[in-house]
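Why do we bother with holo predictions? Because pocket geometry can differ from the apo form. Keep that in mind while you read this record for adenosine-5'-triphosphate.
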Amino acid sequence: MADTPNDTVAKIVSLCKRRGIIFQNSEIYGGIQGFYDYGPIGSLMKRNWKDLWWNSNITTRRDVVGIDGSIISHPKVWEASGHVKNFGDELVECKKCHHRFRPDLIDNAKNCPDCGGEFTAPKKFNILFHTEIGVIEGEKIPTYLRGEACQNIYLDFKNIVDSTRVKIPFGIAQIGKAFRNEITPKNFLYRTREFEQWDIQYFVRPEDMDKWYEYWKQNRMDWYQKYFNNQESLRFRQHQPDELVFYAKKAFDIEYHAPWGWAEMEGIHWRADYDLTQHSKFSGQDLNYLDPETHEKYLPHIVETSGGVDRSFFFLLLDAYNEEKLESGDIRTVLKINPQVSAYKMAIFPLAANKPELVTKAETLYQSLSQKFSIDWDDSSNIGKKYRRQDEIGTPFCTVVDYQTLEDNTVTIRDRDTMTQIRLKIDEIDNWLSTKLNS
Ligand code: ATP
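The structure, written out:
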């Protein structure tokens, strides 16, 4: 029988727990909904995923600079941004079992999907997380954990123009945590209450908006396509006129075909001068840009690309997950994830853990390669189990140091995707692996 959407998600959740990729937060206390921890393997993978984004958007571009902003800001920031007033979801509550739902996520059902009970009228809930600055009663300042990471970029805009040599058109980019008190966190990393976003705000002359909007829309799709195996599972979705905020001429999402249907992964937003106008108004500061050549003064317009790091990472896992039927009839689970994202680029095994000459030889190889690559080491006894573990965490190559290695300095290297094996001289592995990873 084919898997249901829930089965597929459950398989990823189970793999993530079994192999140290992602754990439910506070699991020993029964867990807490909408919060997750990345384990030893997942934290390596997520770091690689973020590095790829950072390299593509900041390191290799002269027109984009990065920041790393704080999670808590002045409370007025969230009034200016509109989040205090408008950052919310509609909610209905079942009168019988008191479970709460977002009507749009239960197809606007009239009755409770859990018990069939009747709903209350919909109410609006703000999803900002509240906190306080200060410890003395009466002097505490109420504020919020940031509901989206990008606000820091607008706040730092003037400082960046004044302190660096950026000239329009230019971008400011950031990866950072955001917090939303989501009413119905669900589908693992898809909708959580704490997550990371990667944002670029690209500042342009108002008349250049169309050109740059199209540029970033395509750039971001091309980037995702490099890392996803199934290209047909990525698409653009254009927002309908009634979905657009008043300042947006157009909006597109990059969507992934998740087991439960098409789902947003990143938004390409036409923000015009809305954010700088709001922050000028609320702060009383002049946020205009002075063109150093033409001496024109104006508020730049903004193209925003805003994606979820964890959400896209989850989609990447779904895309890479494969179950293959082997000739023996066994099922092989393999994560065919891009080697640049995988936690380890190679695993090294001595054929037998109780043969010191094999272990020493393998250790020397590990020491040398791990200076340059992320390498795993496994000297447990069962070779089949070792391959199974590496396949499940997506390690592209496994190297076995065996008796022949002691004679001719060659090793066996097994390919994750094809399971074919080659024999290679130890001295050649470094170059061979570099070439493989960059191809
Ligand atoms: P959604 O409609 O799914 O709630 P959104 O339109 O509110 O998302 P944005 O505010 O545009 O999302 O945020 C940009 C990106 O941040 C989204 O495309 C998504 O990848 C990610 N994101 C938003 N909310 C969450 C969440 N609760 N959990 C994980 N990622 C999220």
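The first strand starts at residue 22 and ends at 24.
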